[in-house]
Every structure is written in C-alpha cells, then in structure tokens.
Amino acid sequence: MPPLFHQPVTAGFLASQLATIGVTYVTLEAAGRFRNVSEALAFYGVYHRDGWNQLIHFFGVPGIIWSMLIMMAHLPLPFLGSYALSLPFCPRRFPINWANFITLFYIMFYLSVDLFGGLLYTPIVYAMYATAANMTRNDQEAAMKKTSERNAPWTGTGRLLRFAVFVHIFSWYVQIHPGHGILEGAKPAIMDSVGGALTSAPLFAFYEGLWYIGINKALQEQTHRLVAEYTVKLCAEGAVMRACAGL
C-alpha cells in the first residue's frame, strides 16, 4: 500500500501540526510537576467532588482522549512520518504519527507514577489508539478511492475528522456546563492548567471506576486527604468553589 501521509504542506496542515505540538508540550510539561500518583489525582480531584460530575467525567474524559487520538492519528510525527509501524490490532504499516507519541507518553507516565494503575490502564489507552488508527486508515482508504492522486488528502474524506471534532467538543461541553457549572459549582481543572488536566484526567476517571468497585481504596483515602488540603489552600487564596462554603 502507498504511504497515506505524504502530503504537501498546506495552511490547515501546518496549523494542525502547531496546535498538536502546543497541546503535547503543555501535557508533557505538566507531567513533570507531579511527583506521585496521589498528587496527580488530588490536583484533579479537588475540582471533582460531586458524584454526578464524577460520572460525567468517567465517560467524558475518555471521549476527549479518544477523539484527540483520532485527530492526532491524521498527523504524521515530524521527521518520522515517512516511517511506518505494524502494531498488534492496528493497521499494517501505519505511518508514525502524533497519536503514537501521546499514547506512549500516557502509558509510560502512568506506569512511572503508579505501576498498578498504569498496568490496568495500558490496555484501555492502547485500545483507544488502536480504534483511532483503524478508523483513520479506513477513512484514508475511502478517500483514496475517490481521487486520482497517489495519496489521499491528510484529512481523508473529512467525515471522521468532523465526527472526532464533534465528540471532542461535546465531551468538553458536558463536563464544563452541566458538570462544573451546575453540579460541581467550581471551575474545571483546565482553567488552572491545561496540561495538568490532560495529564491527570484520564487516570482520575479510571480510578473513580476502580474505587467504585472497591479496588485500591487506600489510594482513594490518601487522595481524599490531599484533596482536603488543596481545597483549604485554594479557598484561602480566594478560589470560588461551592466546597469553600463548608469551610
């Protein structure tokens, strides 16, 4: 099969690359500030106390990550996009792209801060990447059938990207408006740190599910203690949070 990502540089392609580089940079930079899993979970947990808001995030956060991986799978990694990988359950000879990079980052970071949680979460984030890669390959092949060019446009048919953008925006909306604006009564974590939210949110949402079924309750108690400490500090600094009213 001919390579799918050998494309001339257009304004849209360049803008997408720059935006992806920016998102990746703030995510990696924020990861360096968390010394352990408790700090990562507590940073996010301080803004997510309400049970219904936690449920929204349990589904909304994976929606954000999955749709982000779909968008990133369309973009080759600079200097490496001409090379291809054949990974299990993924398309054969799929060009190296930003989704590869960010998936590897999540796996390595979560394994480093919490081996137990990281091992359990790895199959989930890999499954999200694999579905994103397969959907991207299918969309690119569909686009190739409609053009006389050797390669399809990097956007493919455009349908998959539009779908990913919709899922991404909707996932953010349900968390920010009903989740935080109505239920939580506190600003979302992304307002304090975009990178911190993108770094800790997937693991926090995953652990909420583990804690619900009784796994690693000791970590839950440790996280809740840190959340209480962070809340007192934020409220003393003038943060507007519904939780401050009870202090």
Question: Mind explaining what this structure looks like?
Answer:
The chain has 247 residues and is an all-alpha fold. The protein contains eight helices and two strands, in the order H-H-H-E-E-H-H-H-H-H. The protein has a two-stranded antiparallel sheet. Helix 3 crosses helix 5. The longest helix is centred in the middle third of the chain and has 30 residues. It starts with 10 loop residues before the first helix and ends in an 11-residue tail after the last helix. The N terminus is likely disordered.
Supply the key terms.
elongated; 2% strand; two-stranded antiparallel ribbon; 247 residues; mainly alpha
Count of helix runs: 8
Helix content: 55-70%
Number of strands: 2
User: What ranges have pLDDT less than 50 throughout 5 or more consecutive residues?
Assistant: 1-5
- The H-and-E topology, N to C, reads as HHHEEHHHHH
**Percent range for β-strand residues:** under 5%
- Write down the overall geometry: elongated
The biggest sheet amounts to: 2 strands, antiparallel
Structural class label: mainly alpha
Order of strands across the biggest sheet? Answer: 1-2
Q: Rg to the nearest angstrom?
A: 19 Å
Mean pLDDT, as a whole number? Answer: 87
Q: What distance lies between the first and last C-alpha atoms, to the nearest angstrom?
A: 63 Å
